Amino acid sequence: MAAATSSTSRWPTLSTLGPVIGLVVLVATWGRDLPVLAAVGAALALGGAVLAAVHHAEVIAHKVGEPFGSLTLAVAVTIIEVGLIVTLMSAGGTGASSLARDTVFAAVMITCNGILGISLLAASSKHGMALFNAEGSGAALATVATLTTLTLVLPSFTTSVPGPEYNTVQLVFAALASAALYGVFVITQTVRHRDFFLPVEVPIDADDPDIHADPPTGRAALSSLGLLLLSLVVVVGLAKVESPFIEDAVAGAGLPQAVVGVVIALLVLLPESLAAVRAARRNRTQVAINLAFGSAMASIGLTIPVIAIASIWLDGPLLLGLGATQLVLFGLTVVVGALTVVPGRATRLQGAVHLAIMAAFLVLAASP
Q1: Over the stretch 272-307, which tens digit does the pLDDT of each residue have?
Q2: Separation of alpha carbons 51 and 49, rounded Å
Q3: Where is the signal peptide (predicted)?
Q4: What would you measure as the largest C-alpha separation in the chain, in angstroms?
Q5: Which CATH superfamily does the domain covering 10-366 fall into?
Q6: Dihedrals phi, psi of 245, to nearest 5 degrees
Q7: What is the DSSP string of 182-215?
Q8: Which of 26, 128, 201, 309 has the highest CB neighbour count under 10 A?
Q9: What is the CA radius of gyration of the chain?
C-alpha cells in the first residue's frame, strides 16, 4: 500500500512537469533548424506531454462525467490541430494544397479504424465482450459518414472546377453543413439524448480506480483543464517543430507527400488513442467509442469551416476530393463500422477487422 500511495503522489507532479518541460522545449526549438539530438529531445518532450494530456483528460472526465469528458478532449485537440494545419498550409511548400484533405482523412481512418479497433480488442480481450450503446454509436458513425462524404468524397465528382475541388458556393455549403451537423450532434450527445452515449451497465471492475475515488474538486478540475490545454498546445507545437524532419524523412524515403498528413494526424491523435484504450480496458467501451467518433467529427466539423475561411487568403488551390483508393477504404470503413456498432457488442474479431483496414490504409498511403 505504501508503494502504491507513493506512486500516486508522484503522478500529479509528473503530469504537471510534463507540459511545463514541453513548453520550455517548444519555446527553445520553435522556428529553428535543429540537430538530430535536439529533435530527439523534442520527441521525448512530446511523449511526456501526451501522457500528461491523457491524465488530465481523465481527471476532467471524472469531474464532469460522460460524454462531456470525451467531448472536451476531442474538441480541444481538434481546435489546436486546425491551427497546425492552417500554419503549415500558410507556409506553402509541396503538398500544402492537399494537406487539409490528407490530415483530415487520416484522422477519420485513424479514429474509425485504429482507435476503434484497438479499443474493441483491448475491451474484449480483458472482459470477453466489448459492450456499448448501439443508438449513440450508430448515430455517431452516421454523422461521421455524412460529414466525410460532404467534404471529402463529393469534391471528387463535382464538375464546376477542374480537379478534386469545390467552387466557392460548394465550399461555403460544405463548411456550413459541417458546422451545423457537428453542432446538432453535440446538442444530441450532451442534452437531448445523453443516455445514448453513457457507458452501459457492466459488472464493477475492482481494478478501476474511479469506482471508489471521490470526484476531483472544482479547483483541481480547473487546474487539469488548464494543464490539458497546455499539454495539447505543446503536443501540436512540437509536432510542428518535428514536421521538417518528417517531411525530409518522407522525401528521403521516396514516399508520397500524403504520408506527411498521416504522420501529423498520428501524432496529434496520440492523447485520444491512449485515453480510449485505457477506458476500454476498464470496461468502458462507450467512452472509447465517444472519443473515436467524436474526434473524427470534430476534425471535419471544425477543420473544414476554418479552412474554407482561410482559403480566402491562402495561395493555391484547396484540394479536398479523395482518390479512388481512399474512396474504397472509406466505403469499407463505413460498411464494417455499421456492422460493428449495430449489435451493441463486439468481440476481438471486430477489433481485428478494423485494425486490418487501418493497416491497409497505412500501407497504401506509403505505397499507393
Answers
A1: 888 889 889 988 899 899 989 988 998 888 888 888
A2: 5
A3: none
A4: 69
A5: NCX, central ion-binding region (1.20.1420.30)
A6: -70, -35
A7: HHHHHHIIIIITGGGGSPPP----TT-TTTTSPP
A8: 26
A9: 20
